[in-house]
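fold-stage: in
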Amino acid sequence: MAWKWSRRIVLGLILFGCVLAASVARAGTMKLFLKDGTYQLVSSYEVQGDRVRYYSVERSEWEEVPKSLVDLEATRKAQEEEKASQQKQLEEARELEKERFEKPENSGYEVAPGLRLPQEEGIYSVDGLRVIRMLQSSAEIVTDKKRAALLMALPGPLVKSRSLVVLQGTKAAIRLAQFLPVFYVQSAEGLGARLELIQVKPEKETRLVEMVEVRGKMGKPAAGANPTELRTTVPLERTQLAPGLYKLQPTHPLEPGEYALGELDQEKLNLELWDFGVGETPGK
């Protein structure tokens, strides 16, 4: 059986180790409070008549002060609070560490025998016996310099100005082995109904997602002109499996190359994309 290494569990393991290390480091170390509000870090102390003898952690030697200068009640109270705090932290860390063994990896929708989606919202793909969480990348809009130069050269007539929507880098970090991948979209807001699969084009240092054209003069939109978004899309078969859960799959095998899932909002593409590649590994 597989076990879940969620972010919460990893943090729990780190916390567990830190608490143990801190406990060891603090073992035998305490604060001896003085009545003037200051304190000495000591490994032990004892009351001898009207004197308090203690071993200074800072100076690594035995020292004495008059008992009248020491706040013994505050010292004992601080020791009790420190022990209680350490115990609470250890218990919390142990509970988180136990989840590593007790909490199954997947407890959501079953996409294959014995293979389930995580419960968290997101976009997932299945690669054999693995569930892959798709990652988002932010696209940016840049100016088509060639078209801008044309506008400057021909100021009179109306010419379409063009901007480019690009992703940085020529290859996505996530690579899928399947040429007919399946995507599962978990979203309470019905994201799966608004996604589009886009074939992106690698350029010199970026990947072209789409071109945005608007008719205008000298780089200014004409009155009433609406931008036109031009992109290469791949038809998707879209199935709603459950409330908030959609299954998406291309209607035909994908060609080797770069792709992205993008959300459409009133026919406008959101610049936060889920990009991936098919057929090659990054850097090749």
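fold-stage: in (second)
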Amino acid sequence: MIKKYLFGMLLCALTSCQTQTVESIDANNELDYCTAQVNKALDALNMPDSAYDYTMEPRNILEGETTWKCRKASEQEWCSGFWPGILWMDYAYTKDDRIRKAAEGYTEALVFLEKQPAYDHDLGFLVINSFLKGYEQTQNETYKRIALACADTLATLYNNKVGTILSWPRHVKDYGGHNTIMDNMMNLELLYWAANEVKSDKVKSEKLFNIATKHAETTMKHHFRDDGGCYHVAVYDTLDGHFIKGVTHQGYADSSLWARGQSWAIYGYTMVYRYTKEQRFLDFAQKVTDLYLKRLQETSDDWVPLWDMDDPRGKDAPKDASAACVMASALLELQQYVNAEKGRYYREIAKNILRDLSSSKYQSRDKNVAFLMHSTGHHPAGSEIDASIIYADYYYIEALLRAR
């Protein structure tokens, strides 16, 4: 009874500021919009000889620009998997051969990852979003082989004494130890998927599964403050594995609530529960979700968060639509696992988020070829502030497909 009463109070607190009648989201209508934008982007990316340069992967569209600024996939570009992933998801919706051909081309531009040593944890983003999305649609055994090989590569970054994957090998000296960033939670999916695919090899399957689960467990223990807010970076002693400190890299301050980092945590622990079915992970996913929603209500005038919920400029600070996209997609999965009452609440919030993102305030429409505007990349570095960013579009279309 006490838990039910407290949860009722939480719902009242979270909905008091912005309660409105939830308009139904026409997912098909918004997916049609995404398809139109994808085709505009492919037209804009077309080379003079009518051949796409698949090695140049879209990354962002800055203010005043109309088409994607691209980066070379082979130059350790962590966002290179998002565009092929968008294409695979759009193909899942449209079954358009043009979209599939482009998805195949941009995915195949990443085959070099199969034989390359691990550069950093972003290998998960690169492979999950391209080869795994492609494998879902085509059952192409080459995609499966490459994804399995990359899972083995990602596992080489695991430090058994620490209990996490090393995120940035190149920054060990900068941080004074083994660094693990919150984004890394997203990449555990590659290990879990691979563990399921190689169940005939019990030793290998258990190794991959246990690495992912231990990483989630260690991160849950050290990467969060008591209220459920996360640090961007957790630093551990490289030799004996003890936790040293939690700091930020892309947030406002070490102790602030960086919106995208918190959304990574929500999505990540929801996914970990999907694979492990361990109640502790589901409970934790709800804890970090409820803090995000509480702070969102306190700091934002709609369902899209400020880039950091502790930015002292308050509502004058830039928004981060990418965090909202990750959150919407995560909530649409999380609502399936919780009790009916909370599930309805999470589902309503997800619809609110998608409704706001699908408005003229956030959709790019005729301004550029992306789906969305108003994302923030690396605010402390002054990079990609109030921009269209490829990973916002990725999680937006994923959320729409989940809503559908």
